[in-house]
Design goal:
There is one protein chain. With 262 residues, this protein is an alpha/beta fold. It contains eleven helices and eleven strands. The strands form three sheets. It has a six-stranded mixed beta sheet, with helices on both faces. The two termini are 25 Å apart. It is elongated and about 75 Å long. The longest helix has 18 residues, at 70-87. The chain has two domains: 2-126 and 159-168, Rossmann fold; 178-261, Winged helix-like DNA-binding domain superfamily/Winged helix DNA-binding domain (Arc Repressor Mutant, subunit A), CATH 1.10.10. 50% of the residues lie in helices and 21% in strands. α3 (70-87) packs parallel to α10 (246-253) and α7 (178-189) packs across α10 (246-253). The protein has helices at 14-22, 38-54, 70-87, 102-115, 128-136, 141-153, 178-189, 198-205, 212-227, 246-253, 255-261; strands spanning 2-7, 25-33, 59-65, 92-96, 118-121, 124-127, 159-162, 166-168, 194-195, 231-236, 239-244.
Length: 262
């Protein structure tokens, strides 16, 4: 048996059910959006259809995330995966990336890579966008109206029908080590979100004495983090300003989870 994290988008309920058939779950965690929009209300209806079809022997839970904010999505996935690994160490954790936003899909893959979860995808038979596309260049207004009416009457989703679910390989990522995470966290936690130099970072951020060996050590760490895209630096005379990139901010936000999972 397994645990499924299932972001719910506007696709046919069978696109979620197919994954449960291929990888039978003992627990399902629906991931929904935080905002009360019309789109989210439609997603809730689909979730309820899926929920009613799962069966009484599957535990069902729900979590929420900002569907268009990568950092929040990453942190939510990281928390869900690590919490369930601690609680159920012998169960596989799957993420269904068939639906929801592209931000959620990207966050799901990176979280799975960092925290050893698995990913599967359920292809659709048809997509609403491809069915509507011919209408854009159609001059027959009555035909357009009839097609739109048919879509509404048939309760169309963004995708309809399913093919067999399949697992997507997840390549294991090597996250920054503890010392590097400490640096990212120190920069992220300061009010200015930056330090004016390596010396400033070591003394005021890491609360360490700035010695020659530490100067060399942390200069190399800064260089490595910059190469990996987690920080950026600007030079003014002999001083090197240090701040996080957007990627660095995301890693800093989940640094405590990364450290606890090592």
């Amino acid at each position: 048996m397994s645990i499924h994290i299932v972001p719910i988008g506007l696709d046919s309920p069978e696109r979620f059910m197919e994954g449960f058939k291929e990888y039978p779950p003992s627990k399902v965690i629906f991931l929904m959006g935080n905002n009360e929009t019309e789109i989210e209300f439609e997603a809730v209806k689909i979730k309820e259809e899926v929920k009613n079809s799962i069966g009484k022997y599957v535990s069902i839970f729900e979590r929420k995330a900002e569907l268009f904010k990568f950092a929040d999505a990453m942190k939510t996935f990281a928390q869900i995966i690590t919490e369930n690994k601690d609680e159920h160490p012998d169960e596989l954790i799957y993420i269904n990336i068939s639906s929801s936003t592209k931000v959620i899909t990207q966050a799901a893959y990176i979280a799975a890579s960092l925290f050893s979860a698995r990913i599967y995808y359920v292809p659709a038979e048809t997509y609403l966008s491809t069915e509507l596309l011919p209408l854009l260049n159609c001059d027959d207004e009555e035909l357009k109206k009839q097609k739109v009416y048919d879509f509404i009457s048939d309760k169309k989703y963004l995708s309809m029908g399913v093919k067999q679910a399949y697992e997507i390989p997840v390549l294991k990522m090597q996250p920054p080590n503890k010392t590097e995470l400490d640096v990212l966290e120190a920069i992220n936690s300061t009010d200015k979100k930056k330090y004016n130099s390596v010396k400033d970072l070591v003394k005021n951020g890491l609360q360490m004495e700035y010695t020659g060996s530490r100067r060399n050590k942390y200069s190399q760490i800064i260089k490595k983090l910059q190469i990996n895209g987690f920080i950026s630096t600007t030079r003014s005379g002999r001083e090197k300003g240090i701040k996080l990139t957007n990627s660095g901010k995301v890693i800093a936000e989940i640094s405590d989870i990364l450290l606890s999972s090592k």
